[in-house]
Amino acid sequence: AWRKKTAVALTKSFFDRLPHLEPVDKAQADIAWFIYDLKPVDENGQERFKLVKVDAVYTAFRPALLAITSPTPAAWTILSGCSRINWTRTSKPRRITKQSRGLSSMSALQQGDLFCGYVDAKETRKPVNVASVPQRSPFRYPGGKTWFVPTFREWMRQLCPKPKVLVEPFAGGGIISLTALFENLADTAVMVELDADIAAVWKTVVAGQAGWLANRILRFEITRENVAEALERKPRSVKERAFQTILKNRTLHGGILANGAGFIKRGENGKGLRSRWYPETLAKRFTQLDMIKDRIRFINTDGLDIIQEYASAAGTCFFIDPPYTVGGKKAGKRLYRHCNLDHERLFSLCEQVNGDALMTYDNAEEVIALARKHQFQLRLIPMTNTHHATIEELVVGKNLEWMDGLPMAHEPGAA
Asked: DSSP strand E in 177-248: where?
């Protein structure tokens, strides 16, 4: 709103301790972060250190401000045991006291070093600010789980031993599997998706064609005429279908790929189709995906069959985010082509798996009844929906005691 550009110069060590700042194209940026580091150089036979610019990151103002100033769940909990972190109010930067060993407090330290004061307990049930979460997926996926990433991390880190394989039977945009791989929370991710268009994208990545997609995105000139022409053309290969899928996902209203979705009209700040088309950012994400492609097993099939296939596999855990269609809910039918699901069978399969399983669902009485029938525990956690309203979603699992240290989580019916 202030219509000015800002440049910030800072050391790499300091920048690395900041929350993730979502990059944007240089032309759309409000802030340029110029990152410097000390590099050894040889001068007349003597080793000296020289301050060198090693990177430049471009961001919008508001998302960067929110990312830096918003607490995250990891700042409140201990990874093993999930004991509470106490904040003490002083005139100095925040200090953290540990009530048990095993504390991983990076997020807390990041914020504690930057800001003074204390966090009001009334603030603890606010949803996670998604701007503070690394954006790994090339999709803007309806029903995506970026907001759940901090909680997912807590779950994975308290599993002992560390899982070798993460199975995600309804992968969609894949943010959970990608987070697990980039942050080394699992060795391998089994990503499953029934939708052929979405599958084309993951098949292209796994086949080593992410670079082709990145270049295709960078070369594409975004106009309504070009988009219409590109989408009308029959794809001649899987990678061309993948490009069409990304194009649709980034230009259709809400990123919805199901039949009936229309193009973005006015869009953000009146940018129309350009509102969600960030070629440099998308290209960078695909380039990064190429680094982990060998750790992904992608399967274009029914997710329930894969749960059954891996049910007895050692060192395996399951993250399950099914279409929300229990009790006649309409959201899943509106957002996804493949929304019909036997939820009773899903719960039965999850009850039988050897490894741990974590599910997310909408807060519906029918889901609660299914969970209790199959002896699962339940917690509610806040999130912000597409209408910017705060609602609560259900987390379902075999043992959710690790969530009791999260101030924003509580059991259904608890105040």
From this structure: 188-192
